[in-house]
Amino acid sequence: MADRRHGTPPPPTDSEVVSERWDGDDLSGRAFRRLAFVDVDLTDVVARGATFEECSFRECDLNGGRFTDTGFLNCAFTRSAFFGARFEGCKLVGSTFDRCRFGALEVVGGNWRFVGLPGADLRKVVLRRVDLREADLGGARLAGATIHHVDLGGASLHEADLTGADLRGSDLSSVDPVATPLTGAVVDLDQAVALVRALGARVEEAVPMES
Q: pTM for this structure?
């Protein structure tokens, strides 16, 4: 699944749902595999413990959806909308997002390793305690986003914009402070020390004042 982050097409689907209205439906506990959702209204759906495996979502509306302990494994989202959606404890390993809209998206916990979000507009998202190791965030716009206690180890952040983002508690080991805009970002003391060291400076105790 790791190859998906580099643009490998998703596996072909076996069947499709086209232009249907599933808005407000409860999909909890259901399992979907190799299914293509095309222009499907999934507004305000509820899904607890559901599984979507190798599915594709094209021009779908997931605004206001509530997804809890749900898996989207190796799925592909294209030109889909997530305004006000919430993912809690979900697993999206290997899934990709292309030209999607994420206004006010909230993600709490869960495994989003190897997720592909290159160039995504994530300026209003809230990410808390999410595992985003090895994720592709190249060119992503994260200015002003809330990114608390997120594991970004090994993530691709080339040309990503973190200006004004609240990064406290997150793993910033993959952030190059020279190449990544950080103006106005909020960091904690440990992160500040790590970023200074990444710039090549040494952090030592203050020199005592001479009497």
A: 0.90
